[in-house]
Amino acid sequence: MKQKEKKTTPPQKGTFSRRGFLKGAGLTAAGTVIASSGVMTLKGQQFPPDKTLGPDVVNIRMKVNGKARQLSIEPRTTLADALRIELQLTGTKIGCDRGSCSACTVWLDGVPTLSCMTLAVEVDEREVTTIEGLATKGKLHALQEAFIEHDASQCGFCTSGMIMSAANLLKENSDPDMEDVKDATRGNFCRCGTHPNVFSATLDAAKKM
Question: Which of 13, 51, 136, 165 makes the best surface tag, with the fewest CB within 10 Å?
């Protein structure tokens, strides 16, 4: 006996169907990828999708601690590696290398940024400030001096990131309280447990500044 064929009725206009939802979601995702692929925005500049970088080295320029630097690097090079390996600015540390510990914090146009999660080619000619750039004319930043006085570092891996985050707070707020300091450094992890000394050093530096 032949089985009767089941008649399928197409979904009426305006009704919800699982297939329609998945199809629409897929098109939306694809459209987003197409729209965003190959486009980098740097200071308002948009690079067309047909501009591809790599696999060979590319020449880039960036301003690091007030000096213009030119680098020839692979497009996959992170800002942290460019600073440490290419420019020998080893004060910036790489801890987790996945954006979780903030040891690699530098300033990008004055804003704390995770250098292990930032590609050097994205930086272009923007201003990068590292822990080495906080000192002026051979004199340590008040916060750097306070870290020494309060013994706020042990193994040292988190120290530069801590200082960059706390120094940004002092730049924005000249009279912070304990909660402000804790909030500013909440993403900076210290396995040695020197947070109390870090907080004291930051508050002390604020008074001296």
Answer: 13
